[in-house]
Amino acid sequence: MDVGTLFSVEGKVALVTGGSRGIGLMIARGYAAAGAKVYVASRKREACEAAAAELSKLGTCIALPADLGTPDGCRALAAELASREPRVHVLVNNAGANWGAPLEEYPDSAFEKVLTLNVTAAFRLTVSLLPQLRAASAPGDPARVLNVGSIDGLSVPLLDTYAYSSSKAALHQLTRHLARRLAPEITVNAVAPGPFESKMMAATLARFGDAIRDANPMKRIGTPEDMAGVALYLASRAGAYLTAAVIPVDGGISGTR
Is 52 strand, coil or helix? Predict the structure, then answer.
């Protein structure tokens, strides 16, 4: 056992969707700093390029602007990455959307938008990149797919985010289904983040931050190091025997309710 390389991702190629901010940026930063070649995808070109420029100060990071809201967008991103990299060791499906509205006013369009981006895009991009993921797989070190779910997919949230919580529960089940189908060449796991500092959580933390901290067994909000740590574990040799898992990264909220 070489403990010095057990958690290493040096030299691996990773794609992180939604990598220009929030959870995706935390993961991409961890991979870049640890020596991986990181591609970040985001719908907004300027934000995507700004994130890549920031992370390039730590390691190798390349912007791939893409709209994953359609199957064609997913396939186009996969084709562009495949034209650059014959092997992709890690795919992080993080791009997502949320929508909150009162129950009686909740629009059909919310479900269409949120489920398409949070579930269908993750499925389509994974399938489109299977040749590159399989090419990166090695004995004892399979390729990895990491889906970013949510604790809102593990238990019922207090907010009126019906499409979001439903989509994350679906993504957790998709994770298990793909894990069974793609083993042993590719592992498929999910993380279920709790409260982290991000654009999506900004308004909630501004209004309820103190209450959220008090209700958290760890009495704090998640940090970039917390998310990067679990992402590095899952992408490294240390996580090679784990698949079909949904890991709460929430300070114990979901496990102690």
Answer: helix
Rounded Cα distance, 249 and 252, in Å = 8
In residues, how long is the chain? 257
Structural domains present in the chain: 13-249 (3.40.50.720)
Tokens 């102690």 found at: 256
What angle do the packed helices 45-55 and 22-33 form, to 10 degrees? Answer: 30
- Output the tens digit of pLDDT for each of the chain's 257 residues: 888 899 999 999 999 999 999 999 999 999 999 999 999 999 999 999 999 999 999 999 999 999 999 999 999 999 999 999 999 999 999 999 999 999 999 999 999 999 999 999 999 999 999 999 999 999 999 999 999 999 999 999 888 999 999 999 999 999 999 999 999 999 999 999 999 987 777 778 888 888 999 999 999 999 999 999 999 999 999 999 999 999 999 999 999 98
Global pTM reads 0.96
Residues identified as active-site: 164
Instruction: Enter the tokens of residue 11.
Output: 């030299």
Contacts of 232 (CB under 8 A, 6+ apart): 7, 9, 30, 31, 34
Distances (CA, A) of 66 to 63, 71, 164, 167: 9, 11, 21, 21
Instruction: Kindly provide the b/e burial profile for residues 165-189, where b requires at least 16 CB atoms within 10 angstroms of the residue's own CB.
Output: bbbbbbbbebbbebbeebeeebbbb
